[in-house]
Amino acid sequence: MTELGNRLKEARKAKGISLEDLQNITKIQKRYLKGIEEGNYDSMPGAFYVRAFIKQYAEAVGIDANELLEEYKTEVPNAAVEEIPEQMKQISRAQPYHHRSAAPRSTQRSVHKSVAPNTTKVMNILPKVIIVAIIVLVLFLIWFAIATLAGKHNTDKLNSQQSDNVNIQESPKVKSNNAVQDKNKAKKEKNSQTSTATKKKQKDTNKTDNTKQSLKVVSTSGYNSTYKLTNTDQFKVKLIAKGGQTWIQVKNSDGSSQFQGLLKDGDSKTFDLTTQNEAVFVIGNTVNTKMYVNNKKLSYTISPSSEVRQNVTIQFKPSK
């Protein structure tokens, strides 16, 4: 293991990075990274790649690559000159020192001519390869865009045709549904008109009854008052507690009690007394009690402010 490799390995371990992690970071194969740590550069493509891999390794573990290469330049192969073939080394070693004159210079010139290594060839070819790759990529993107647009156009056209077919096939069903809806709508309108007419007729009847009926005061004495209801065939009384609570009691013509109890504010009670010829209403608080006879408000003949508790008697004489 070289000092350079040992330093890189220690820096990697200090950062807690495994060779697998470093391979993912630098995109350099694990065997080359291991070769850098062990100083085994023979497994690599050439001197250029050795220096390039060492730079990437150093940058990945936080070491200044240029300073590292300068410090250990004796350990790192020179990228500009490949190793002299082994045969040339043997020839050089076989010749004595005093014979190294013109022949060695010739040999040196031939060696310098062969200095254009595989790495230099690769560097010369690499730009051309990149340009070709870019051209191929651009052509592929153009083709892909055209194919995508054509496919989308065909899909839209097919969907449009299918939509037209669906509309044509479903048109009788839609027509049938529209007919049913129109029929239901007409039926609802007819029912609404009938209901409106019925309500209007009932309202007119009630209005006529209220107009025809007569409710007159017969007599008053203390907190007792008597009224006479005529010109109607109905005798319905509604009592409403408004402004406070009130206690009431309703007696039939035979003196029996039909109802007695407390009405709270907002409560109401309706009594159908059509079968009775007389009814007595005992009202505990006339100030808080509103009284309606056949939907027509009764005005107390005795002022509630003077007599809070009152007995109201209504005599009923139905019309024939």
From TrEMBL:
Residues 8-68 form the HTH cro/C1-type domain. Residues 158-181 have a biased composition (Polar residues). Residues 90-115, 158-213 are annotated as: Disordered. One of its GO terms (molecular function) is DNA binding. The chain crosses the membrane at residues 129-151. InterPro entries: Bact_Cytoskel_RodZ, Cro/C1-type_HTH, Lambda_DNA-bd_dom_sf, RodZ-like_C. Keywords: Membrane, Transmembrane, Transmembrane helix. This is Helix-turn-helix domain-containing protein. It comes from Heyndrickxia ginsengihumi. The lineage of its organism: Bacteria, Bacillati, Bacillota, Bacilli, Bacillales.
